[in-house]
Structures are given as structure tokens and as C-alpha cells.
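Appendix B, record 7
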Amino acid sequence: MNILVVNDDGIASPGLALLAESLKPYGKVSVVAPHTEQSAIGHGITIHEPIRLHHREDLLPGFDSWSLEAKPADCVKFALYALDLKADLIVSGINNGPNLGTDIVYSGTLAGASEGIVCGIPAIAVSADFGSLDLPRKELPALLETVMGAGILTKTDVININFPSSEYHKSLGVKISEMGHRPFRHEFVEENGVYWSRGGWAKAQNGPDTDVWAFENGYISLSAIQINRTDYAYMEIMREKLSW
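C-alpha cells (predicted):
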């Protein structure tokens, strides 16, 4: 199997190195990651600026690896269409910080995985609580073995994995979870005539079937994230209520 690893934290991220090592048993692993951090960049792509490529096996010995002065989705496209890398699976992460609930809309980590789906390649996104790589280091190998061996990878959904805080020392297990609600309350602070975005996550009601609840209660969350955003049930309401 040919596996392409990408992230949004940048080529020097410790989570990226851990993910690449964890995937070695499954085939040839190549890495194309942003040259600098691209967190919360969403699914943007570069179309009006030049794209510069750097060969970076100095950071990831033993892997074919490059950094790209561009966004996570660009890294996938560039790997496939410019570097002509073969990929049977795209894996994005390990992100420094969870990607849960409404975070998913903004996530560069999910964008890297989602671009795999756009290109017709199965994809996985992996995230962990801020500064918490201990649990993935312990539990990701067994989790990958289960997921990779279960025959559940598809070309329509990203498998979104989130590890809880390392304060749990060991997760309470895995919960297959739906997307919850995780609102971010922005504060815009003026400093010397310019504004900086600040803020934090607000508390929200999330049931035990959600990824947010699972993460906050010490479980590893597994979610299936669709690229097709069509709400088919609402379309039926539109057909019923509208006269066209």
C-alpha cells in the first residue's frame, strides 16, 4: 500500500513524525506537509501565489518527504499531480489539538484528509488534545491495525479520529460518534492599530453519542465525515414547500 501523510501543523510537527512511523507497517509512506503551520486554514487552495517545494528528509529520515509553501489541501494535490506520488490512502495529522464538532469546518487537518476523498482516495484524519501525544503513541498502533483490517475505508467518508488528553494515561476505549457542537467565542483585541483574534471554546450541550462528549470524557472518538454536504431530507421539504 502507498500511503501519503499530510498535516496542517507543518513539516516539523512531532505529531507528523509519530503518524508516519505508526503507518510504516502498512506500506510505503511518503510525506508532503506545509512548510509552516496552516492551522484553521480550512479547505483553501493556492491559486494566485507561487508554490515552493522543499525536500525535507533531514527532518524525517527514512521517508520520502517534502514541505510545500502552501495549504494542506494543496499538499495532497501537489503530491498526486506534480510529484506523481502513488497513494492508496491519505492520512492527515496527528494534529496538535482536537478536531471535533464545528471545529471540523475550519480544520486544515480535515481538509488534508478531505482532499483525498475529493481525489478519489480513502482518508483518515488523526488529532489529539493539545500537547498530548502520549496516548496516540501508546494506542494508535492498535487502533490503526483494527481500522485498517476492518475493510471500512471508503472513497466517500473521512474517518476522523480524536484522542483525549494524556491526563487519562489510558483511554476508556473507543466510541463511534456523531459530530457534536463546539462553538468558538471570538474576541477581537486591538493592539497598536491592528486587531488580533482571541477567544476560546464555549460550553455546549453534547449528548453521549457525540465526538465532543467522547473526547471530554476520556474516550477515543471515531467519526465518519462526509464530503457530500447535501441534506437529502431537507431537499424533500423544499420540493414539498416550493412550487418549482
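Remarks on this record: The chain has a mean pLDDT of 94. Helices lie at 14-23, 72-81, 103-106, 108-118, 134-149, 211-216, 232-241.
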